[in-house]
Amino acid sequence: MVLAAVGQLCATACIKSNLIQCQTLVRKAALAGAKVLFLPEASDYIATSAEESFALANSSDCAHFISALKDDARQEGIHINVGIHEVASGHRLKNSLVWIDDKGTVTQNYQKIHLFDVEIKDGPILQESKNVEPGQKIISPFDTPIGRVGLAICFDLRFPEMSLALRRQGAEIITYPSAFTVPTGKAHWEPLLRARAIETQSYVIAAAQAGSHNETRRSYGHSMVVNPWGEIMAELGEDFTEPRFMTVDIDLDLVSKIRREMPLLRRTDVYPEV
After folding, report:
1. What is the CATH number of the domain that holds 76?
2. Domain CN hydrolase, which positions (predicted)?
């Protein structure tokens, strides 16, 4: 078994402050003996408008955010999985999830495929596709100190086709770093995470934003780790006062045991393979 850490924070439009939160979690996770730290979606910033978001993504602070975490990963000897913004074009951004190894090198970069366009009654109206470019491919699962990891982000959680594709390609752990809204979090966060774990017989790790980012945006929190049997191993709360983290042991023998004892033999002669 290998120890993994899952962080929870509340990003704002101040990248420097967000970096301090992330660096605090990196140091604490490394001190606890974790080999990997999972951080939420949009850990670099959460803006108040599309215009502010684009300006922040083009700023020197945003460039420094990722370079500083690369230095921290190397100095602390820990892998870091973190959600960031990247510039896609003159008017659009990428919602990205990068993997920084313990040498300080970005080895994987996944661009969010499913974008969050919703209008919830008595809740938020969010149109991510207005200023974010959707990704066009699933990144193949890759080897890490805790097992083979498949990358996904937040709204991807609602599409089992993606988690099944990652499982078919050998994923043992699937990540869903998120900034879930409070209404959708209360309704669907836990059941969706548990469903993805059960149907793929994989660990699901979901680092989440929590608390009020600004006057109009609040995230649900409840960072969670679910084992391949669908059991919640660890969970953080909703209220935010300071960056928090939890650690879990990842037992790949449990993954093998569940897949061996309950083989999911798909009838691809009857329905298409995902």
Report:
1. 3.60.110.10
2. 2-252
H or E segment to which residue 29 belongs? helix 15-31
Domain contains 255 = yes
Q: Which residues contact 99 (CB under 8 A, 6 or more apart)?
A: 79, 80, 81, 106, 107, 108, 109, 142, 144, 149, 151
Asked whether residue 270 is assigned to any structural domain, the reply reads no
Rounded Cα–Cα distance for residues 78 and 72 (Å): 8
Kind of pairing between the strands at 117-119 and 125-127: antiparallel
What range defines the domain where residue 21 resides? 2-261
Q: Which residues are catalytic?
A: 41, 112, 154
- The number of beta carbons lying within 10 Å of the beta carbon of residue 131 is 18
Residue 271 within a domain: no
Confirm if 97 and 16 have CB atoms less than 8 A apart. no
Which residue has 């037992």 as its token pair? 251
Question: Are 230 and 222 contacting, i.e. CB atoms less than 8 angstroms apart?
Answer: no
Dihedral class, residue 72 (left if φ above 0, else alpha if ψ from -120 to 50, else beta): alpha
Residues 6+ apart with CB under 8 A from 146: 2, 4, 35, 36, 173, 250
Number of domains into which the chain is organized = 1
Q: What gap in Å lies between CA 7 and CA 28, rounded to an integer?
A: 10
**CA distances, 192 to each of 83, 114, 156, 164, 195 (Å):** 20, 15, 11, 14, 5
Q: What is the torsional sign of CA 142, 164, 207, 125?
A: positive
Q: What is the mean pLDDT of residues 98-116?
A: 97
Residues 207-236: pLDDT tens digits? Answer: 999 999 999 999 999 999 999 999 999 999
Q: Is the pTM of this model over 0.85?
A: yes
- In sequence order, the 6+-apart residues with CB closer than 8 A to the CB of 98 are 66, 81, 82, 84, 106, 108, 109, 110
